[in-house]
Amino acid sequence: RAKSAGGNRFEIADPEADARAITRHGLTNALPAALDRGEFFIEYQPLVHLGDGSVHGAEALVRWCHPQHGVLGPDRFIPLAERTGLIVPLGRWVLQEAVRQARFWSRRHTDGGPLRINVNLSPAQLQHPGLVADTVDVLERSGLEPGALCLEVTESALIGADEDRLKPLRQLAEMGVDIALDDFGTGYSNLANLRRLPVSVLKLDRSFTQGMQRHPADPVDLKIVEGIVSLAHSLELAVTVEGVETAAQAEQLRELGCDTAQGWYYARPGAPDRIHTLVLADAV
Ligand code: C2E
Ligand code: MG
Ligand code: MG
Ligand code: MG
Fold this sequence. Notes:
Blueprint: H1 15-37, E1 40-49, E2 55-66, E3 70-72, H2 74-84, H3 87-108, E4 116-121, H4 123-127, H5 131-142, E5 149-154, H6 155-158, H7 163-175, E6 178-184, E7 201-204, H8 206-210, H9 219-234, E8 238-241, H10 247-255, E9 260-261, H11 272-283
C-alpha cells in the first residue's frame, strides 16, 4: 500500500502491490480459457426457514479451481470478469448449472414444494440485453418452474436505476421469478424507493447479523432490524438474513420476524450432494 504518512505524498514502491497487480492481470487473462476448460464450479449454501429450520432452498456460489492458485473465491475474480465482460457467459453458465441442479433436487423432493435456487446477478448481467431470453431458455430447457428461481441483485446495482434498466427484472418477476435485493442495508437506497422495484425478497446484509454477536445485542441494532422487517412485510417482501453464525443470532432474528436465514450456523457453502442429503433428512 502506498504510504502517505509523515506528509510524504509520493508512492513508495510496494512489491506486494505489484505482485497483486500481476496476479490480477494473469487471472483476468486466464478467465476465458478457464471457462472453456470447466475450471469453475458451484458450491451451494442452504437457506432455511427460521420458524422450523427446514430447508427452503440454496444459494449458488461460484468458485474457480485455478491450476496454480488453487480454489479462488468469487471476490477474487467476479470483479475481473465484470470488467472484461466475461461475467456474461460465466453468469449464464452459473445460471444453467444451478437451475439444472435445482431441477434434479426437485425430482427427488416432491413433497413440501420445490427447493428454491438463488443465483447472483452482477450489474453487467443486468444490463446485458440477453438476460430475459437466456433465463427463459434455461428454465424451459430444464423444466424448472420459474417460481423456484430467485435472482439476487445487489442494492447498489439498482440504485438510481431508471424504468428501462428495471424492465428485464420486471419481466422476469412477471413470469414468477423472485428477485431478491442482496446485501440490503449496505447501500444508500431510499426505503420508500423499494416499492418501485420489482423485488419480492430483501436479503439483510451480514453486517446486521454481526451487530447481534454481542450479548446482549445493541438495542438500537435490534430496533433497526425490527423496523426493516416490518417495513418489508408491509410491502409484502420476505426477509432473508445472511451470515447467521450462532444459535443465539438465529433465535434473535426469528423473534424479530425474519423469514429465512443463511449462514455457517446452518451450513457452509458445499457440494451439491450436501443439500440433497439435508433435504432428504428433512423429508423423513
Ligand atoms: P453474497 O451473494 O452476499 O453471498 C454471501 C457470501 O457470504 C458468500 O461468500 C458466503 O460464502 C458468505 N457467507 C455465508 N454465510 C456466512 C457466515 O455465516 N459468515 C460469513 N462470514 N460468511 C458467510 P462468497 O461465496 O465468498 O461470495 C461472495 C460474493 O460473491 C457473493 O456475496 C456474491 O455477491 C458474489 N458471487 C458469488 N457467486 C456469484 C455468481 O455466480 N455470480 C455473481 N455475479 N456473483 C457471485
Ligand atoms: Mg447473494
Ligand atoms: Mg448477500
Ligand atoms: Mg453479502
